[in-house]
Each structure stands twice: as structure tokens, then as C-alpha cells.
Specification:
By secondary structure, the chain is α/β, with parallel strands linked by helices. The protein folds into two domains: 176 residues, Rossmann fold; 183 residues, Phosphoglycerate kinase, N-terminal domain (Rossmann fold). 38% of the residues lie in helices and 16% in strands. A six-stranded parallel beta sheet has the order 5-6-4-1-7-8, sandwiched between helices. Helix 1 crosses helix 2 and helix 9 crosses helix 10. The two termini are 13 Å apart. 51% of the residues are buried. The model has no long low-confidence stretch (mean pLDDT 94).
Length: 396
Amino acid sequence: MTLPTLDDLDVAGKRVLARCDLNVPIKDGRISDDMRIKAAVPTLEALLEKGARLLVCSHLGRPKGKVDEELRLAPVAQHLAQLLGHPVEALDTVVGNEAMAASMSHADVVMLENLRFEPGETENDPGFADELAGLAQAYVNDAFGAAHRAHASVVGVADRLPSAAGLLLQAEVEKLDRLLHEPERPFVAVLCGAKVSDKLGVIGNLLERVDSICIGGAMAFTLLVAKGEDVGRSLVEEDRVDEVRGVLKEAENKGVDILLPVDVIAAEKPEAGSPSEAVPIGQIGDRLGVDIGAATAGEFAGVIEGAKTILWNGPMGIFEIDEFAQGTKDVAEAVVRATGDGAYSVVGGGDSAAALKELGLTRSVSHLSTGGGASLEYLEGKELPGIAALTKQSAR
């Protein structure tokens, strides 16, 4: 696979549509986490240095093809201007006469309104893709977090304009490829989250590559049930138990060690203030598991700290509730210690990134991905539409 890069694209004096992933949390006009905006800056700076005039576009939230005043991109444009040290003109439309006029103006950086205000975006409508492409003379996709979506701004425009990957998307692919194609051993994957069904494909693909998999979060309970354990009222995907047994058997055949919780924090309810205690697996009773226990955290940490390559995706428990966050913090600290000892570590987005941020450790891992869903699909071996559209471009 050959991704066209910024070095392959002539942008001097041209209008460039830059698809970024600026989908950040905003409440009352205030951005609470600007990681994705910061991640977009190097590509935008590089394009400006090459003499491009930028039309920045992104989605924000899920407005479902309708204008939502709380999901306008004006606060993002204002924050981006501060990070770039350059004015950013925020539009209140995506396409149409105003957008066309702005694209033809002499402004160096213009931000289109939320792409998902237009129903044609998620539908990859050819007419909408034509309008978007008509605003620019070249296209750069730097939105790795949206690369698994076959949307107009992700694939449609790439089919219509000279295109390339931005620095962030290029880096994400290179970092993940290192896990898939040249991992240094031992390679440990730490996979957590709510549903095992979301991760079965990843587990299956990684069984060919890893030495151990530590599994936490609610998804661990389906695996524990598959092994005959009583997990009380913990979340279990009953329709996946037989499939999970097959995965466990395959792991055994391939010599991959699957580590599951040996103790958990059991609570009456999955909410703050609910009575809870640490118990061994099998003693949850009429409660549910909401975090891994100290013994499990210690066992996982020992395996992680002995690794040379680490993938971590997902929280160990209900991380947003302080009482149920300790297991996630313990794993985060183990990943950081291993990285400090020379291990190569890749951490998925979402709650894993939030844990590192809360601990002030975001710079203490080898790579912090901006795309949780996209990175999982890539590690599963799936073809991401956004990347396929760019590689198709390079083959022409």
C-alpha cells in the first residue's frame, strides 16, 4: 500500500480542501479537550508553508443532516486560529454561494461549517461530493479518526481531486503498521471496553501476531462465562459465548496467553456512590463488576512491563466514575513504565487517552492515536475507505 503524501501534491497557490478530525467535546461554547485540534496543526502549517490557501472541513457530533446550533464549528475555528497563530474565517455554511465566494477570496484559512449539517455527507451523495470538490483544486485527508467512514468528504472528494494524506493520517498508518508487520517481541495487547463483539475481529487478527492479550472491561465477563465462571449481574453477551469459546481455543492452539480478571470491584449499581468491594471472580453474587481488582491490575502490569511492544485500547472499568477508575490508572502507569524502559507503545483514543491525560502522561507513550474506531478496524485488517480512496489515487 502506497499512500500519497504532501510531498507528492503540488499545492502552491492552490485552494486545498483539508479534511481534519476536529470532533472535540464542546459545552456552552467551551472546548474541554483540544487534542484533535492540536493534532491537525502540523499538516495545516505545512500546507501554508507550501503556499496553499486552506479550506478546512470537519464533522462535529451527530446532527443527522440538520443544523444544530450547539454543534457549530465557530468555537473550533477560534481555537484553531490561536494554535496556528493565523486568522481562520469561520463560515456558517458548508457548500453553496457563500462557501464558493470564501474559497475564491484571498483568505488563507477558511473553515467550512459542520459537514454533518448536510445529509449528503454521511450518504456520500455524489452531488454533495461534487460541490465540496468544486471549492478546491486539491484535497488532503488528515482525518484518521474518520477514515473508516465512507462519507463524501472522506472518499467522494478524493475521487474528484488530486489528493494526498496529511501528516497525521500518514503517521497513524505507519505507527499501526509497525504493530501489524514488525512488532518486537514480546508483544502484549491490552483490550478492554463494553462489548466483546466490538473486539472479536481485532482479537482474531492479533492472534497471529501477539504473545499475550490482557482483557478487561465489561467485555471480559463474556470470556469468563465462556470459561464457566459465575459473573453475577455483570454485562454478558450471551449470543457470543460459543464464538468466544472458539477464540479461546484458537488462542490456546497458537500459544497466545489470554489473561482475564481474577478479581473485580463488585457494585450494586454502575453509578457513583453505589456500595462496592473488591472480590475474587466467582464471588460477585447479585452484583456486577465495574472495574478490575488490585490482583488483576498487578498481574496485567507484570505482563505489560515485560513487553517490548504494547497495544492498549479501552478502559478497565467505568473510568468516568472515580471509584471505578483505579484499574485503568494502574494499567496506564504500567504502559508508561514499560515505554520508559524502551517498549514501543500505541494507545487507542477515547477513555484510554482520557486516562493518560488525567494522569498527565499523554507524552509518555510512543503513540497516542486520534482514532479509536478507525484504529480498531485497521488492526482488524479491514480496508478503511478513506485510506483506500487515497491509495487508489496514487495508483492512477
